[in-house]
Amino acid sequence: MVVLLITNTLKAQSKVEDSPIKWYSITEAEKLDSAEHRPFLIDVYTDWCGWCKRMMATTFANKQLAKYINANFYPVRLDAETKDTIEFRGINWVSDGRTNDLAKYLLGGRMSYPTIVYIDRDINILPVPGYMTIKDIEPILIYFSENVSRNASLDDFRLDYMYAYNSIYADEIAKIPAEQQLDTLGKIEWLGIEDALKKQQETPRPLLLDIWLDYVPEGTKLVFSSDVFEKNVLKDSKIADYINKNYYPVRFYAASTDTVKILGRIFPGSTNNGPHSLTSYLTGGDFSFPALFYFDKDMRLISKMSNYFGHNLYLTVLRFYAEEAYKNETFQQFYTRTEK
Question: Which has the closest alpha carbon to 304: 319, 290, 293?
């Protein structure tokens, strides 16, 4: 995958009115959010902050980056030292004479500029301080826009993201201590559908079906995090070994032209680069990725997963289905019981 946000040429511009990002006040963003729920990106700045101005002239001036932010966030600029009263979440936030109380609240009292505050779809607040280049901010944008924040820490996803695009982040990876380097040596022994079904009849075992894409069709979601998941999480040796021992893993191309027989039906192949009929059938037309389907030993569909999971949490997910714990308890109960 080519990371378009990083390779796009920067055009220097420092004035907010010239910014390709459509900035809102936080009150405007809150009203928009009531109609269409999105994460917030709040640029907390001051008029005297040089690095704030530099970020506006470089990172936020990138047209491709701006296009992504405009489509996936409500971008807000907040002057931390404004004397204006700001209405947000039913509260009127005022200034103490130097700093607005809303800025204190969003930054958790740690007044550092610039700081970008992200509010995810679950209303969790995460301030990320410091000047950000495009390479710095890109994984954070993916993290919040694609709901990765629900199942992985930001630090873990940043590391996964760098390894997924290691040619771009080579310098950053070289600085990571040896004990923190990612294990990407695992190799899943992928099977074709026909071979997996034959093995399953001989020796019953759950089947894991990974439907994947290598392009971005209109209407597709979670493309970047899906790529990171495929390149890192599924290449973790512990995860790959567990899948090989406990599942029949099948990796199926979402737009395959092959006709396949599964679930007692015949599914014709794709035409004109459209989704395969099996892809449409299993996803119900919701083409969100990653798209992993878990079947029991009798080929009954147990669950679909279309969210990014961090390494340790995903290993727990695999165990939950392979050990058939889902028959007697919820995933949360299983996680609490086994991960103490």
Answer: 293
Encode pLDDT of 124-150 as tens digits: 999 999 999 999 999 999 999 999 999
Which secondary structure element, helix H or strand E, spans residue 275, and what is its range?
none
pLDDT in tens, 42-76: 999 999 999 999 999 999 999 999 999 999 999 99
pLDDT value at 1 more than 50: no
Query: Could you tell me how many helices (H) and strands (E) the chain has, helices first?
Result: 14, 12
Q: In what order do the strands lie in the sheet with 115-119?
A: 74-79, 40-45, 115-119, 125-129
Distance CA 74, CA 66 (A): 11
The letter for the amino acid at 226 is S
Distance (Å) of CA 96 to CA 5, 84, 88, 93, 210: 39, 11, 17, 10, 55
Overall average pLDDT of the 164-185 stretch: 92
**What predicted TM-score, i.e. pTM, was given to this entire model?**
0.85
Of 212, 203, 193, the closest CA to residue 275 belongs to 212
The C-alpha atoms of residue 136 and residue 170 are separated, in whole angstroms, by 13
**Number of Cβ within a 10 Å radius of residue 12:** 9
**Could you count the other beta carbons within 10 Å of the beta carbon of residue 18?**
11
Please, are residues 1 and 35 in contact by the beta-carbon 8 Å criterion? no
Q: In what order do the strands lie in the sheet with 301-305?
A: 248-253, 207-212, 291-295, 301-305
Region 309-336: mean pLDDT is: 95
Rounded (5°) CA angle 221-224-230: 105
User: Do 164 and 138 contact (CB within 8 A), yes or no?
Assistant: no
